[in-house]
């Protein structure tokens, strides 16, 4: 098969220079594919569901919209939302039990297809590890392939904050995780798939970015990526061309 030579993904010109056909080629030959979770792998935003469960849904949903739109830093938005929710360990566990996250149609088949091709699959989320691990288990993704934020609780189960040292707690954190994965595993071609601004900014160091609008369309993301899909079936069809 003819292999094209690509200019490395650099933020200043990536979205102008990387064509649709180049992005598709990079996806077909990716060694690793990294998925955002909230509004991508699952239908909902985990933090919004937690807020609704704790009775403060409206205030937190608006802040999530601002964070995903890029109008405030991710860490600031995360900190402010959690200070409103102040969930207990018991509330988090009950949410997962009573309202488990709903997988986006087609994602299970896509992940299975990637695994069959020996492509490594990672979940990189600004959401909470306790929820994302539940999703990873459903998709047969190893838990050591999960990168997400950790909630902290006091010994009595009350909310005690979040682990601010995690790279996923910051804007640019998903890119830091991808850089680490490339260094640790020697990956040359890594593709990031997601719906939000924090996913878009992970390229670079990701080789390519694919915007996903199957659950929510964020115009500023759609306008800035060369390949924007609204179903995982589109990606599965592309893999079948190999």
Question: In a nutshell, what does this entry contain?
Answer:
This is Phosphoserine phosphatase. The chain has 242 residues and is an alpha/beta fold. The chain has helices at 14-17, 20-28, 46-53, 57-69, 74-85, 89-98, 107-116, 129-138, 173-185, 197-200, 219-222, 232-239, and strands at 32-35, 120-128, 146-149, 151-153, 159-162, 190-194, 208-212, 228-229.
Global mean pLDDT: 83
Q: Tell me, what is the CATH class of the domain at 20-44 and 101-240? A: Alpha Beta
Q: What is the overall silhouette? A: globular
Q: What summary fits the major beta sheet?
A: 6 strands, parallel
User: What is the tally of helical segments?
Assistant: 12
The proportion of strand residues reads 5-15%
Integer-rounded radius of gyration? 17 Å
Q: What is the annotated CATH architecture of the domain at 20-44 and 101-240?
A: 3-Layer(aba) Sandwich
Structural class: alpha/beta
The CATH homologous superfamily name of the domain at 20-44 and 101-240 equals HAD superfamily/HAD-like
The fold-level CATH name of the domain at 20-44 and 101-240 is Rossmann fold
Low-confidence segments, given as residue ranges, are 1-17
Report strand order across the widest sheet: 3-2-1-6-7-8
